[in-house]
Amino acid sequence: MDLVEGGGRNSTRLTHLFLGRTLNCPQGSSNTRRGIPTIINWTQGGNNVYVTGTFNGWKHKIRLVKSTQDFTTILDLPPGTHRLKFIVDDEWKCSADLETATDPDGNLVNYVEVGTEDDDATYDFVSPRTDPTTAPHHLLRSSTPPSEYVAQIPSILLAMASQQAESTSPASPSGTAQNQGQQQQQQPPGLPPHLEKVLLNSGAVSEEDNSVLPAPNHVTLNHLYACSIRDGVMAVAGTARYRKKVSCGLEWGKRVEKGCGCVIMVRAL
């Protein structure tokens, strides 16, 4: 994937205070800013560090500013969940300080959740595994004291619940009949979405070696896949993993009929 380094030379420069030091980062003006300032931090070393993600459609890479021990940048992200990944010295990497998950293609990525401006939180995205009782006060992601629970529901969840209720509630008797007809026409999927990403149907990762395939999603391991019988031949496949090595096994079976009427399958590896 060819990424273009994001600009920002013509934008207004604001000074942000992060962990007791001043960090200059390109930002838009307050009138045109469309997101919430979010600090992205990389602490696993390197010389040149960039970040990209779903917030820019994976089309541009944004350089992180190097400090004494880490790299930092500030992005204006809209509320919601964003997937991102770091490019460290021309190598794609995930940060150990952020939550990780797999995207629909089975790739391992980081993700961050950005709330609305009404939420009382500081979005500096330090390691979520940090013990809040031992972490410094300025590193806490929420102003709520440790070991204290509240019954207040975030405004973003209330807004999503109200939108879902409005979309599902019928406005008239005719709307009720229409909704029932749509529900009857919808059919359940044949397979869960994560099982449809079969390793053997994926494109080649390396142009030089077609035998190199992308790393499969862990949920597809130890599953038996079978194709329909064509010309009396059926093929089955399975994927297994031992430590970091992943292997796929395929078997073809030939349908053979004997004079007694018995049908046997002759396997070929």
TrEMBL record:
The residues forming the signal peptide are none
Cellular component GO terms, alphabetical:
cytoplasm; nucleotide-activated protein kinase complex; nucleus
The Association with the SNF1 complex (ASC) domain covers: 142-248
Q: Which InterPro entries match?
A: AMPK1_CBM (IPR032640), ASC_dom (IPR006828), ASC_dom_sf (IPR037256), CRP1_MDG1_kinase (IPR050827), Ig-like_fold (IPR013783), Ig_E-set (IPR014756)
Q: Quote the subcellular location field of this record.
A: Cytoplasm
GO MF terms, alphabetically ordered:
protein kinase binding
- GO terms for biological process? signal transduction
Report which superkingdom the organism of origin falls in.
Eukaryota
Family matches, as CDD domains: E_set_AMPKbeta_like_N
Which keywords belong to this entry? Cytoplasm
Q: Where is the composition biased (Polar residues)?
A: 162-177
Give the residue ranges for region: Disordered.
126-146, 162-194
Regions of compositional bias (Low complexity) in chain numbering: 178-188
Concerning PANTHER family, the annotation shows:
5'-AMP-ACTIVATED PROTEIN KINASE , BETA SUBUNIT, 5'-AMP-ACTIVATED PROTEIN KINASE SUBUNIT BETA-1
Similarity comment: family membership? Belongs to the 5'-AMP-activated protein kinase beta subunit family.
Protein name according to UniProt:
Association with the SNF1 complex (ASC) domain-containing protein
Name the species this protein comes from.
Answer: Jimgerdemannia flammicorona
The lineage is: Eukaryota, Fungi, Fungi incertae sedis, Mucoromycota, Mucoromycotina
